[in-house]
């Protein structure tokens, strides 16, 4: 009885309050002689709205349903959006088929050709020491690791390769990626985030463009390889902009541009970087193992201390005759990528035999520095032989192993320009057994530089190979471009 008494008292108190509320005057104000309590009106309106929303139908069927004939007519008229754009009439979709290793001489569509379409700069494809290292690695580790580096994909040869590259370039540490082209567009988003500023050359190739897009940073382009344009852009972004002083800022360039063959003036870029307090991301896929006295890249070529470049990336499929890529820099730069770079964290690690091939290729370069002299001799000879090619002109740097030829006079239509260049490449292959390629771009590529013909020079090419190429290219271009001179 004693326990029930408090409950009874509480219930009685609640009933007393409710009774008092109903017996109290309903009005706090009088409008047109009617007593109205403001909060009761609002509550009443809310209840009415809730009841209306609960009782209404979410879908009102048509008053008159469609007939079978009308349904059939609508189905006949409907056309789904195509999965891909239609193929234009006359488009070249059949490509030459490679049937052997892509060395200086290879087999295409069943016949031997001189190969200037593969970036085998040091001529190491088919090198016996590299092949032996791959065979030994296959026997010891198998074909692949079947897992990302952070889980069960790290093998001792990966660590050896990272250490070898860092030691070769003179950097504290490096990190391997499984796929060369994914290196740069994994590295950029790992460091550049939404709200950061990136100043990039307008001539960067698609992989760099993809990395810029994935970063979601504010991207500003400067004119291709134009240091006055770069300086002006940096000045505009930083002058009187207090916000710019508090956010991360980067300059992104290629050492040798894939879309033009020109070399970036690294000494001037570093000077501007230090003046405006930016960081530099340098893509060295076409200069690693090529430029500099010992092939250590653009920094060695210009005599710039390697520590002045914040982040360096490169694919290993050009000079080292293997696959995959690497990023090198400070220990903090490398360690950050091991937890934040998608291409490293989520991809299966580089097959061990490819890492072994990279180590062997760097060893070969250190032991045979004369290979660089052979490469530069071939580049100089090709420049000399092609200096007066009818309708075409060389736009690449004299030290670039990627020799880029563009039309002296554009037709005004990129499609027509590409068709002419493709015709030249096809005839050179068919008539003289010389394999060359154009720089055609996908619809995703935003680079506005002129298209052209890319010639990849190798230390393995002979003087006869270069003369065969030049004589064929001169003859065919004179024939194809005779109406456009």
TrEMBL record:
Coiled coil: none annotated. It is found in: Endoplasmic reticulum membrane. Residues 112-466 form the Aminotransferase class I/classII large domain. Its main location: endoplasmic reticulum. It is a single-pass membrane protein. One of its GO terms (molecular function) is serine C-palmitoyltransferase activity. Pathway: Lipid metabolism; sphingolipid metabolism; Sphingolipid metabolism. GO terms for biological process: sphingolipid metabolic process. It comes from the Eukaryota. It catalyses: L-serine + hexadecanoyl-CoA + H(+) = 3-oxosphinganine + CO2 + CoA. Keywords: Acyltransferase, Endoplasmic reticulum, Lipid metabolism, Pyridoxal phosphate, Sphingolipid metabolism, Transferase. Its cofactor is pyridoxal 5'-phosphate. Its EC number is 2.3.1.50. GO terms for cellular component: endoplasmic reticulum membrane. Belongs to the class-II pyridoxal-phosphate-dependent aminotransferase family. Heterodimer with LCB2. Component of the serine palmitoyltransferase (SPT) complex, composed of LCB1 and LCB2. PANTHER family: CLASS II AMINOTRANSFERASE/8-AMINO-7-OXONONANOATE SYNTHASE, SERINE PALMITOYLTRANSFERASE 1. Serine palmitoyltransferase (SPT). The heterodimer formed with LCB2 constitutes the catalytic core. This is serine C-palmitoyltransferase. It comes from Urochloa decumbens. The lineage of its organism: Eukaryota, Viridiplantae, Streptophyta, Embryophyta, Tracheophyta.
């Amino acid at each position: 009885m004693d326990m029930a008494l408090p409950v009874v008292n509480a219930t009685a108190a609640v009933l007393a309050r409710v009774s008092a509320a109903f017996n109290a005057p309903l009005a706090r104000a009088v409008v047109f002689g009617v007593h109205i309590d403001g909060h009761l009106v609002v509550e009443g309106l809310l209840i009415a709205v809730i009841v209306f929303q609960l009782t209404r139908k979410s879908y009102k069927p048509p008053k008159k349903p469609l007939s079978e004939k009308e349904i059939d007519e609508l189905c006949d008229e409907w056309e789904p959006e195509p999965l891909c754009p239609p193929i234009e009439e006359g488009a070249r979709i059949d490509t030459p088929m490679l049937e052997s290793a892509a060395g200086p001489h290879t087999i295409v569509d069943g016949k031997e050709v001189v190969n200037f379409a593969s970036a085998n700069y040091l001529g190491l494809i088919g090198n016996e020491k590299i092949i032996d290292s791959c065979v030994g690695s296959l026997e010891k580790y198998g074909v692949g690791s079947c897992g990302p580096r952070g889980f069960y994909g790290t093998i001792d040869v990966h660590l050896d390769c990272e250490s070898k590259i860092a030691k070769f370039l003179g950097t504290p540490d490096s990190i391997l990626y499984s796929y060369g082209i994914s290196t740069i567009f994994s590295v950029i988003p790992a460091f550049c985030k939404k709200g950061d500023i990136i100043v990039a050359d307008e001539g960067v190739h698609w992989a760099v463009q993809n990395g810029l897009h994935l970063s979601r940073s504010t991207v500003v382009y400067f004119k291709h390889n134009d240091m006055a344009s770069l300086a002006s852009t940096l000045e505009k972004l930083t002058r009187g902009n207090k916000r710019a002083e508090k956010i991360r800022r980067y300059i992104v360039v290629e050492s040798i541009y894939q879309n033009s063959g020109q070399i970036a003036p690294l000494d001037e870029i570093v000077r501007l970087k230090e003046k405006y307090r930016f960081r530099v991301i340098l893509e060295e896929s076409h200069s690693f193992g090529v430029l500099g006295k010992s092939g250590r890249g653009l920094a060695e070529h210009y005599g710039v201390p390697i520590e002045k470049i914040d982040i360096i990336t490169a694919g290993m499929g050009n000079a080292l005759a293997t696959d995959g890529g690497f990023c090198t820099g400070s220990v903090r730069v490398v360690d950050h990528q091991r937890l934040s770079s998608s291409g490293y964290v989520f991809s299966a690690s580089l097959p061990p035999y490819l890492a072994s091939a990279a180590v062997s290729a760097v060893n070969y370069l250190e032991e045979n520095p004369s290979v660089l002299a052979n490469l530069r001799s071939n580049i100089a000879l090709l420049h000399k032989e092609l200096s007066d090619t009818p309708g075409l002109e060389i736009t690449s740097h004299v030290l670039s192993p990627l020799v880029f030829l563009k039309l002296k006079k554009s037709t005004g239509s990129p499609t027509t320009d590409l068709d002419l260049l493709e015709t030249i490449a096809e005839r050179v292959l068919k008539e003289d057994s010389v394999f060359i390629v154009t720089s055609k771009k996908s619809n995703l590529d935003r680079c506005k530089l002129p298209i052209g013909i890319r010639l990849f020079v190798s230390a393995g090419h002979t003087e006869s190979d270069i003369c065969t190429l030049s004589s064929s290219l001169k003859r065919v271009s004179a024939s194809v471009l005779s109406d456009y001179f």
